[in-house]
Design goal:
3 helices; globular; 104 residues; 25% helix; alpha+beta
């Protein structure tokens, strides 16, 4: 999939230009948590920490970077990349499939 058009998504959602695009976050739909850190790999094991909020989660500059981590960690059956915006009092996130449907 090509990189989502953040400006177009921002306009469609009515998100203010003052609301900073934070990047892409990884959301585990099974546990409803966001990837906080990837602490390392030992052999076939990967160690990850998850948190319930996107506020302090890992942010990726590009959709490609987030998807690479999802694929490298082999969690593509349960995790998705989401777009994150700083809305002032909280971080707003939206999943890529919802954006694609909204833009078509």
């Amino acid at each position: 999939m090509k990189e989502p058009d953040i400006k177009l998504i921002r306009n469609k959602l009515g998100i203010s230009a003052d609301s900073k695009f934070m990047g892409y976050v990884i959301f585990d739909s099974r546990n409803r948590d966001f990837l906080y850190s990837r602490t390392g790999d030992i052999g076939i094991f990967s160690f990850m920490e998850w948190i319930p909020s996107p506020n302090r989660s890992l942010k990726f500059r590009t959709y490609h970077d987030a998807m690479k981590v999802i694929n490298d960690l082999e969690i593509n059956h349960r995790a998705i990349a989401m777009i994150a915006f700083d809305l002032g009092m909280h971080i707003g996130v939206i999943d890529i499939p919802s954006c694609s449907e909204m833009l078509s």
